[in-house]
Design a protein that fits this description.
Distance between the termini: 41 Å
Shape: elongated
Order of helices and strands: EHHEEHHEEEHEEHEEHEHEHEE
Helix content: 25-40%
Oligomer: single chain
Strand content: 15-25%
Largest sheet: 4 strands, mixed
Number of domains: 2
CATH class of the largest domain: Alpha Beta
CATH topology of the largest domain: Chloramphenicol Acetyltransferase
Structural class: alpha/beta
Number of strands: 14
Strand order of the largest sheet: 1-6-5-4
Length: 358
């Protein structure tokens, strides 16, 4: 995740999504039609959901794999599990069945063939940025659990784990077969993943499962009903609120005209005041012959003047060129000449430019 904190408290929550008997049966039938395993099927669905929520064309998540590679190892008691990353390239135009067969299954097969490769060796080869508080290769996990039902007679008939208030990864998805059907459990780091985002991921998982089992040829982009909607508050991203910066500013000025737009020591402008100041400066620029496509220099010394000048230049249809007056005169002259700049807004002197006070 971008801008993630250096350390987290590893506080976690777990949410469950039990699939009913009909949906679980549909998952099993889809696996039969695709001639694949539940692990491959759920890896494909999870990969599509992660890509949808992150906006990435490739996603990586880890999975624990059995690493008993010899017959003799099955008679030994030990922790024969290795956790390796699965990397999936997402093609939104590809049908779910084709993408699963051509991308997901080969990647899973390749991963299983390398299940005995030491994790430290993978890390050394990948050479990622490392830290003591997170996995160096992935922050998201998919774990296929064993059945919760116990074998043989005894007092314990089933096992249930409700989470212990911690999160080992940013996001962890457990998939477990139960007598009632498939059980999906999402564990997330509450410092990194807001609750509504976790709910959105579970909703996407359910919808993708329903749509993929209904029609395995459906394109990945059609696994989600809101794919065409412009904005969702689930970390996926959204359409811009306006076509350009000035359009956004004007809309904001109409909505909250008296709110503070710019503040600095000794000076404050509301959106209404800033809008008016930008309009006045725009008129002055046009009076000086500034036309769309022209370049206007900026040598403003205060935040308020800078923001006002930027808005005014944009409203005139021109581009702005920040000019640092501490640069040598020869450098400034070169920049002005290459940009075709003949007018600047601000203070000081610029070789080859007329400077207009803001």
């Amino acid at each position: 995740r971008p801008n993630r904190p250096v350390e987290t408290a590893f506080a976690g929550r777990r949410r469950s999504l039990p699939l009913d008997a009909a949906t679980s049966a549909a998952v099993d039938r889809a696996c039969e039609r695709l001639a694949t395993t539940p692990f491959v099927f759920f890896s494909a669905v999870y990969g599509a959901v992660l890509a949808r929520h992150t906006g990435q064309s490739a996603v990586t998540f880890g999975s624990p794999l059995l690493s008993r590679r010899t017959i003799g190892s099955y008679s030994l008691c030990g922790f024969f599990v290795n956790t390796l990353p699965l990397v999936l390239d997402v093609d939104w135009d590809a049908g779910f069945a084709r993408w699963t067969a051509e991308v997901v299954e080969p990647r899973v097969r390749e991963l299983r063939q390398r299940a005995a490769v030491p994790f430290s060796q993978v890390v050394q080869h990948a050479d990622p940025d490392r830290g003591t508080t997170r996995n160096p290769l992935f922050s998201v996990m998919l774990a296929m659990q064993d059945s919760t039902e116990t074998a043989g007679p005894g007092a314990v008939r089933a096992l249930r784990e409700h989470g212990n208030g911690t999160a080992k990864f940013d996001l962890w998805l457990g998939v477990t077969p139960t007598a009632a059907g498939w059980l999906l459990e999402l564990e997330y780091d509450t410092e990194l993943v807001p609750g509504p985002v976790a709910d959105g991921i579970l909703d996407s998982l359910r919808e993708a499962l329903d749509r993929a089992t209904e029609d395995t040829t459906r394109p990945l982009a059609d696994l989600f009903s809101d794919a065409a909607q412009p904005c969702r508050d689930d970390g996926r991203g959204c359409e811009p609120a306006a076509a350009d910066l000035d359009g956004w500013f004007r809309a904001t000025a109409r909505r909250v005209p008296e709110n503070t737009a710019v503040t600095e020591p000794g000076r404050r402008l509301s959106y209404r005041e800033l809008d008016r100041a930008a309009d006045l400066l725009t008129a002055r620029l046009r009076g000086r012959g500034v036309l769309p496509g022209h370049v206007v220099g900026l040598t403003t010394g205060t935040l308020t003047d800078t923001v006002t000048a930027i808005l005014a230049v944009l409203r005139a249809g021109a581009a702005f060129l920040p000019l640092d007056l501490t640069l040598p005169a020869e450098r400034l002259a070169y920049m002005v000449e290459k940009a075709g700049c003949r007018l600047a807004v601000g203070e000081g002197e610029v070789p080859g430019c007329t400077v207009l006070a803001p």
